[in-house]
Structure formats: structure tokens, C-alpha cells
Amino acid sequence: MSNRTTIFEQLYAALSGVPGLTGVFDGQAPADQAGPYLVIGQSQELRGRLIDDSERKMYVTLHIWSSYGGRAEIVRLCGLVESAMPPDYCFDDAQIMKDDASGWQHGVLTYRVYFKRG
């Protein structure tokens, strides 16, 4: 990985090919978007693993939203997202919960990637 822009371009391209999603959005989906869809959410950048400070670590959070009543669709899509991720992205965490306000299922995936500083 070379820089932040490349990370997000690569991520968007990989996720746009996930079958079954009605869309992939950077930051927020339109209010009337039909599900299931994915939102590229928060990111956090930290120092990397190298002592010379030439590397950065970035956590990226992906949000899958589904109007399906159960968790099955989110679970299936989590697997498809994992298969579509570029090989240098490391899976860290997944949660599935019901959003009480909308009644939709909400899957939250966290991935970690390392890149050169600068």
C-alpha cells in the first residue's frame, strides 16, 4: 500500500463487485436506498509496526445494512465481503445487531491495513 487515496480507491473497487449489494457508499447512503447495501464508514490511522516510523496502520469500518428480518443475509454478505477484500487487508472484528430505530439488521466489520507513511 502506498497512500491513503489508494487504500480507499482499492477498497471501493473491491466492494463494488460484491454480489447481492444494491450499492456501496462512502460515508452515507441515500435515505431511500433499498437494502442490502454497504457503507464505508469510519477510519482510524495509527503508527505502524516499524520502529523507524515509516509505516502507518489504518482501521476501516464497513457497515452492511439489510432490511431482511433475520441475520442470515448479513452473515452471507459478511462472507462475500471477506472474499472480495484485497489480500493485504486483515480482518479484525465483526458484529451483527438490530438497529432499533429502523428495524434493519446492521453488520459492522473492521479491517486493518498497513501502508507506507508519506
List how many beta strands DSSP finds: 5
Q: What gross morphology would you assign? A: elongated
Average pLDDT confidence is 90
CATH class type: Alpha Beta
Distinct helical segment count: 2
Second rung of CATH, namely the architecture: 2-Layer Sandwich
How do the strands and helices of this protein lay out in sequence?
Layout: H1 4-16, E1 24-26, E2 37-47, E3 55-66, H2 72-84, E4 90-98, E5 105-116
Q: What do you see in this structure?
A:
The structure is a single chain. The chain is α+β, with helices and mostly antiparallel strands. The chain has one domain (4-116): Alpha-Beta Plaits (2-Layer Sandwich), CATH 3.30.70. 22% of the residues lie in helices and 40% in strands. It has a five-stranded mixed sheet with strand order 1-2-3-5-4, covered by helices on one side. A hairpin with a 6-residue loop joins strand 4 and strand 5 (105-116). The chain is elongated, with a radius of gyration of 15 Å. The protein starts with a helix and ends with a strand. The relative contact order is 0.24. The model has no long low-confidence stretch (mean pLDDT 90).
Q: Can you tag this structure with a few keywords?
A:
five-stranded mixed sheet; 118 residues; alpha+beta; 2 helices
Short précis:
The chain is an alpha+beta fold and 118 residues long.
